[in-house]
């Protein structure tokens, strides 16, 4: 088993131990901490995602960004695991999709819509102080990050995690793109300093 696979398995097991109350409480604090990050307070367009299960909660943050007038783009998983995007128009416009995900029911904007984002919120399982992010292993966000790099786009890349998911070292591979900041319930911090 690779270093990434072992770390992924360990972190997912820890998340399974969280109660619904743990997840709810962390989500409220996480939304507040994220809104203090200048990369988000100054953003006009943010590409984000809808948290599901025991992922660090994004619902309150999505609502807060939208209430502030930020254009929020949410991913729509395509058959090849790449991501299309659609605008977030409120929780009432989220519909169940494959893999237990929730997606916006609005018009699809195309995979390149992410290039308009001033900040991209990324799901993950861990990050280290170098900004190396560990995702779930499906490759969807690796494609997004490669698309941004190929287009010369440079949005702030921010991963949302629980406090104990900021680790000493995430195994790095050549295709990995480092993130700029992490937001946990303990607060926001910049990486790659």
UniProtKB/TrEMBL annotation:
One of its GO terms (biological process) is folic acid-containing compound biosynthetic process. Its cofactor is Mg(2+). SUPFAM superfamilies: NagB/RpiA/CoA transferase-like (SSF100950). ATP binds at residues 4-8, 133-141. Signal peptide: none annotated. Substrate binds at residues 50, 55. It catalyses: (6S)-5-formyl-5,6,7,8-tetrahydrofolate + ATP = (6R)-5,10-methenyltetrahydrofolate + ADP + phosphate. Keywords: ATP-binding, Ligase, Magnesium, Metal-binding, Nucleotide-binding. One of its GO terms (molecular function) is ATP binding. Pfam families: 5-FTHF_cyc-lig. Its EC number is 6.3.3.2. It comes from the Bacteria. Belongs to the 5-formyltetrahydrofolate cyclo-ligase family. This is 5-formyltetrahydrofolate cyclo-ligase. It comes from Streptomyces sp. gb1(2016).
